[in-house]
Every structure is written in structure tokens, then in C-alpha cells.
Write a structure and sequence with these properties.
This protein has 3 helices and 5 strands, in the order H-E-E-H-E-E-E-H. The protein is of the alpha+beta class and about 130 residues long. The strands form 2 sheets. Strands 1-2-3 form a 3-stranded mixed beta sheet. The chain has a two-stranded antiparallel sheet with strand order 4-5. It is elongated and about 75 Å long.
């Protein structure tokens, strides 16, 4: 790990990657899509009836663990190198999507927009495994 800002840099890089590469559903534009780095929670407080949500993809780093393979790498491969290898970490994220809409003339909530956003985000993360 280079310094204390490295973990925040990972989240920021993932956020930028998603904003740049995601394909958006027809109703969503880049102007109204939010990609947030936060704990997963509902945007609006619970209400009596169905509510609509702003289209949003959320990244939550829920676990950080040391990379055992890189921890055990041999520094003696370089002449004169000594000491411990750099701290190598694996960052684990929970990706959640929001974007419920209310069906017209109905009290049902349609979450297909959120599912499309999640699918698009997962495609980007699969295409760019970092």
C-alpha cells in the first residue's frame, strides 16, 4: 500500500470506471445517474406507500484483507533488497443499485431499472477486472 489514501483511491477509481463505461437504461441519463461510495441504505425514509428512487449505483467496501500470495513474495530476487514486501490488500465491495419507479395507475413498485443498472455495473466490473 503506498499511503493512507490508497483505499479511498480504489473506490474513487471504481466510481469513475462505472460512470465512464456503464450502459444506461432508456429512462436514465448520465446527468441523473449517481454513483455513490457509501453504506447501502434507502435514499428516502420509509413511507406508507410506494416511492420512486433516483437512479443510483452504490459501492460499499465491506472487507479489506491482506493478500497472502503477495505477502510471501521473495524480496531476495533483487540484489540488495531486504525488509518486508509492501502491504498488499484485497478490497471487497458490495454493489447495490437503486431506481424503483411506480407503475402507472397501480400501487406496485417496478425495480427493473435498478436491476438493469446493477447488470450494467456488473458487466463493467467483469470487463475491467482490477
Amino acid at each position: 500500500m503506498s499511503d493512507f489514501r490508497a483505499l479511498a483511491g480504489i473506490s474513487s477509481t471504481l466510481r469513475t470506471l462505472l460512470r465512464d463505461r456503464m450502459e444506461l437504461p432508456a429512462q436514465v441519463t448520465l446527468d441523473n445517474l449517481l454513483v455513490t461510495i457509501s453504506t447501502p441504505h434507502a435514499e428516502n425514509p420509509p413511507q406508507a406507500g410506494p416511492a420512486t428512487e433516483t437512479p443510483r449505483v452504490n459501492l460499499f467496501m465491506y472487507q479489506v484483507s491482506e493478500n497472502g500470495a503477495l505477502k510471501n513474495q521473495d524480496l531476495r530476487a533483487s540484489p540488495g533488497a531486504y525488509g518486508n514486501p509492501p502491504l498488499s490488500l484485497n478490497a471487497h465491495y458490495l454493489v447495490t443499485a437503486y431506481g424503483a419507479t411506480q407503475e402507472s395507475n397501480s400501487s406496485f413498485v417496478n425495480e427493473s431499472q435498478a436491476q438493469q443498472l446493477l447488470g450494467s455495473a456488473m458487466r463493467v466490473l467483469h470487463d475491467f477486472p482490477i
